[in-house]
Amino acid sequence: MPVFPFLLFIIITSFTPGPNNFMAMVFAKQYGLSKTLPFCLGVGIGFFMIIGLSSFFNTVMLNILPAIKYPLTIFGVGYMLYLAYKILTSKEQKAHSDEKEKRNLFLAGAVVQFINPKGILFGITVVATYILPYYSSYLSYLLFALLLALVGGISTFSWALCGSVFQKILRQYQQPFNIIMALLLMYSAFSIVAH
């Protein structure tokens, strides 16, 4: 396997703006870094499942992809636009330590991976291009899924860290911040349609 192109691909794809990263930044701004950690963990778990499923069912997915690509894209773009709307219209929230809220952030992080077109297409691409041509054991699929989930979790955490570190500044400029984040999320959604 060409290691450098593989690492470059996963790092650039994971750390560039997308739904996970935008949501982590917004949650960290609203709730703080420690309360956003369940979301980051959920993203890692959900991404692990996506990569695992892509590894085991890549051939089937590629065969049916033409049939599901358009509905999946429309659904994912619609959800991303909904998230952009929610960010744009969100108000300042008081931080509170509710256990149910933490569970909801964890579940949101995990579930969003199954409707995140960037994540799903990344999973299919990285598995088809870098894993299946060079590895055939279930253990290697598991190890790559763990590696990619770790990279995804780290990238989401890094965006959450930025949201937390700049929390006071972001609170002062909440409306412009929300507008910029919503526009970036909309750009991510429309860039998926444009490809």
Overview of the structural elements:
The protein is mainly α and 195 residues long. The chain has one domain. Helices cover 85% and strands 0% of the residues. It is built from 8 helices and no strands. The radius of gyration is 17 Å and the shape is globular. The mean pLDDT is 79.
Structure characteristics:
single chain; 195 residues; mainly alpha; 8 helices
- Put simply, the count of helices is 8
- Specify the biggest β-sheet: none
> Which value, in Å, is the CA radius of gyration?
17 Å
Structural class assignment: mainly alpha
* General shape: globular
The fraction of residues assigned to DSSP E strands is under 5%
In short:
The protein has eight helices and no strands. The protein is mainly α and 195 residues long.
Helix and strand topology:
Layout: H1 3-15, H2 19-31, H3 33-88, H4 99-111, H5 117-131, H6 138-165, H7 167-172, H8 174-194
Helix pairs in contact: 1-6, 2-3, 2-6, 3-4, 3-5, 3-6, 3-8
